[in-house]
Amino acid sequence: MRNDVSQAQHDLQLKVWKELAISKQILMRAATDALKLNPECTQEELKEALEGALKKVAKADSDLFNSKEEAKVAITALEQKLAASEQALAAIQKEAAEAQAAHERAVQQLANVRAAASVELQKVKDRLAEREQSLKAINAALADTPENVLKKLNTLKKQKQEEADSRRQVEAALNTLRAEKQKQDVKTADVQRNCTTLVERYRDLHALSLKLHEQLQPLVEDAKSLSAVPELDTKLLEAIEQPTTDKTSKQPARPGRAASR
Predict the structure, then answer these.
(1) Are 95 and 243 in contact (CB under 8 A)?
(2) Which of the residues 7, 14, 32, 129 could staple to 37 if both were Cys, CB 3.0 to 4.6 A apart?
(3) Residue 96 in contact with residue 229, Cβ under 8 Å?
(4) pLDDT, tens digit (0-9, with 9 covering 90-100), for 177-228
């Protein structure tokens, strides 16, 4: 009976060792296949190959970590550039709005001065008409005596002097308005040039942001985690580059001379 038990234990141990040896051979074969080694290689060769593979894995992990860090730095720089571009665009919008408001004020001021000048000219014309009527009445009443001629000359001289004074006042007001309008046009042109330069820089920065965003996508694990680059508002930029101008604003006409006879 004891001999049968001993034989059974011996057979079991033999079977276990046999299965372990087979498993070891399978593992060895799998390792040599994965490492592209000769299946008949020695354990020392297998060990060296495994150590080399582990070094490659460690290097790959290190490279991946460095790539992630570089991607983080690039993303931070891109976000800073985007923030700066948004601030620049806000400044452009503010400056363009101020320039537009100044232009509208100048146009309104020009219209007001024109209206005032028109009223003043009409008053001058009315006074001249009244004086001509008065002269006709004086001529009819006093006839052509030397005294009447002298009075006519004095009256005519006074009328011409008043007419010249009124014309000088109107021309002075118009000249002042022209000078102010010219200064405003120069200022508006300077603002427009600055706006155009800033818009070009903003477009270049937006194009660079798109390029950096595209280059960063393969460097991060999840490309969707990158912040999207804001869409370029072309209508707004075109409006800043080509602001609407008041087509009704024209140079004020010089007042014509009133005929006095």
Answers:
(1) no
(2) 32
(3) no
(4) 888 888 888 888 888 888 888 888 888 888 888 888 788 777 777 777 767 7
Gap between the Cα atoms of 191 and 98, Å rounded:
9
Helix (H) or strand (E) holding 37, with range, is: none
pTM of this structure: 0.33
The one-letter code for the residue type at 61 is D
DSSP secondary structure code for residue 223 in this structure? G
Contacts of 93 (CB under 8 A, 6+ apart): 236, 240
According to DSSP, residue 222 is labeled -
Question: Would you kindly state where each structural domain of the chain is located, as residue ranges?
Answer: 2-41, 92-241
Q: Which of 92, 93, 96 is nearest to 201 (CA)?
A: 92
State how far the Cα of 232 lies from the Cα of 215, in Å rounded to an integer.
19
